[in-house]
Amino acid sequence: MHNGFVRINSVPTRVFTWGHFVTEKFNENIKELVLVISGNPGLPGFYTTFCSTLYEQLNREAVIWCVGHAGHDEPKKHLNMTVPKLKEHPHLYDLKGQTNHKLSLLEYIPRQIEKIHVIGHSVGSKIILNLLQESPEFNAKVDMCYLMFPTIENIADSYSGKWFVRMRPFFFILKLIVLLFNLLPHKLRYGMVKLYCRDMPEDFLEHCFEHTKLSVVEKILFMASDEMDKITELDEELVKQNIHKLKLYYGKKDNWVKRKYYHKIVERFPEIDAQLCSRDFEHAFVLKSGEDCGEMVADWIKQR
């Protein structure tokens, strides 16, 4: 596993890779790529267990790239990489901007790659649908898209979506709390994060700590707010055009995706490959079930 920052669509972006890094020359025998696009918050560090499992289960024969969202993971100061400010460049950080961000990432994929397996989590699923529409060249190489707990329609109508919309007028209070939190000594802040995230794997603590930066929190909320406004009715025509390339995996109890959306899509498209989770995986599956989900998705890929 390797990770580093690459400037994508003008924004320094951390990418985790298994096999070859984004900027490395690929071995000539490498023909397959697995691209993982995170949910929101877009910190790819939370996906390491999931992707490591995928890599091993696929016998290390495919390169895996895992990318989060622009502005959600900022480089350390010593790297001297400036992150464009949200106030001055909002177009880089809304849903459209995040789609453009992934379109720019596609430019790094070597021409020798013949088959791409794409995995999207939550809003990453919506971005993947956008990519299929925006890039015919990418679409032509995609073997299958695995949309995990997909927020691809009416996200604001979900339980958590309704709560988010109600709380939007009070986000200034949250931002003030984050600002005051960052005035505390580093050790105290880290200890508080460790206490709050005590149920998470130890390896994820540093990534949780990233969430406490005000500039990151602002971009996460900005993107999420745009999701509430933009992800409304399902683009049925887009689904129909790519139905043979889509596998959707819905949660049995998901506060961001109503179960009725699973029943709705299989009723509308009887031939679609959609599945309702039977193993009690949570929406944020990477936090507690990364290994199990990695094995499951690897099996899907190997069956192709």
From TrEMBL:
InterPro entries: AB_hydrolase_fold, LDAH. It catalyses: a cholesterol ester + H2O = cholesterol + a fatty acid + H(+). Keywords: Hydrolase, Lipid droplet. Its EC number is 3.1.1.13. The keyword Aminoacyl-tRNA synthetase does not apply. It is found in: Lipid droplet. It comes from the Eukaryota. One of its GO terms (molecular function) is sterol ester esterase activity. Signal peptide: none annotated. It holds the Pfam family LIDHydrolase. GO terms for biological process: lipid storage. GO terms for cellular component: lipid droplet. Belongs to the AB hydrolase superfamily. LDAH family. This is Lipid droplet-associated hydrolase. It comes from Chironomus riparius.
